[in-house]
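Q: My collaborator sent me two sequences in one message, no labels, and asked for predicted structures for both. Can we handle them in order? The first one she listed is below.
A: Yes, handling them in the order given. First sequence, followed by its structure tokens:
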Amino acid sequence: MTLADGAWGTQLIGLGGRLSECLDLWNLDHPDRVRQVADSYIRAGSRIILTNTFRSNPISLAEHRLEGQCSAINRAGVRISRKAAGESAMVFASIGPIGKPHSGSDWTPSSLQRAFAEQAQALAAESPDAILIETMTNLEEARISAEVALATGLPVVVSFVFIFENNTPRTLEGSTIQQAASVIGSTGVHAIGANCCTLPESSSICRQLADASTLPIWIKPSAGLPTLIDGSPTYSAAPEEFSSSAEELRRAGATFLGGCCGTTPDFIRALANHPALRFGAARNL
């Protein structure tokens, strides 16, 4: 397996960020703090780090009146992670879902295609090692984003959020793992996976992904379910508990393993030091 990084939003909020602001803009306004997050994951043992560009598509940026800075924010995000990674790690550029649009925005398949293409092309201009399309909840949105990302010529990973209905994991719009693997696999992506699920859920999802697809599997579980304390999400899992439970993901077939919401460099360090997980060098897709 290859060890990826943990949550970025958790770390940026710890450095003074607010849930209500566009933290992707920190690539331009506070690059030193963004670099601090990237550096912390490299020191913890990550051999793949992401970029602070999860919500850097022009439709999402328009909610903060920042659509005109789409290219600058994305390109700066890759540069920051690349400088931190050096020769120690690969950089996977993050593209998140557009999700529910703000009032009055144009939200159609063609507008999604344009928005994702603008972001993907900006990311690709700084030569990351791959593009990660993550936290996808809608199969059609995932397909559109995958196709425009593949057009850059970079390797592409697509990661979904699955929820369990009657013991069957599905995306929020109802697609099964088998349907997601079939549709996304047919686009020519280089890996498929899941993030933002709890560890027990992730193990089951990983096994089903391995049965449904021959692609490498990307898995990033969250640190349990959050509760709000003083307005901030707090997660229940501890790093040692997380790393011990993650051993099941190796047996389930995970190729890439990291952490999602609530995980920190301490979680990644615990994974790196766990003797049964056997991480190797960064893997090319």
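Q: And the one she listed second?
A: Here it is, processed independently of the first:
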Amino acid sequence: MPRSPRTLTLALLLASSALPATDAGATFPPFPFPNSTVPPCITLVGSDGVTASATGAFVVIIRDLANNPVPGVRVSVDLSSATDLHFCADQLDPGLILDCPTNTVSALTDATGTARFTLLGGGNGSVGTGSLGNAGRIYADGFLIGSPTVSAYDLDGSAGVGANDLSLWLSDFGTGEPYGRSDYDCGGGLGGNDLSFWLSAYGRGAQSLSCGANCP
């Protein structure tokens, strides 16, 4: 015999009362690194064949709930959402851990909780399309701690930083789109100050070489 709507409603109420408690009443461990220092922008750089350009140097400092530095934390920079950019397959730094399949480079924090990076990489020569601001991801032992904008001076990924990269920057500027790869001053848009950054980097001559090989 078919059940009435009232009987079905009562059965559903009884069944739901027997279900385990939902996550609303559950407790979770606190985020372990709330006082960390993470850069809002990072820049991929070229090299002279031996050393990465110091222009791209940055640090991430990991601190715990009590604001104490935390050593031995694996800090990872992830470019998987910035598909117009790439890492070099050789970072020229034995302290960095490169994982091409996941498009990440990692380093361990030292006794002061500091992980140091100078990341070799560049652009893929994109024109008229690309990632915008905050496309990078920085993780500490798997916890997301920052989403920096990622720029690159070697925009075509070939023959070091040169005239074609300037042409690509001007193309980005001309679109009016705030492509992160060309936003060197972290201003959220492209303008004269970014051009000044590029010209200064070019003038130093420390990025004469692109990657010997890119991460696939």
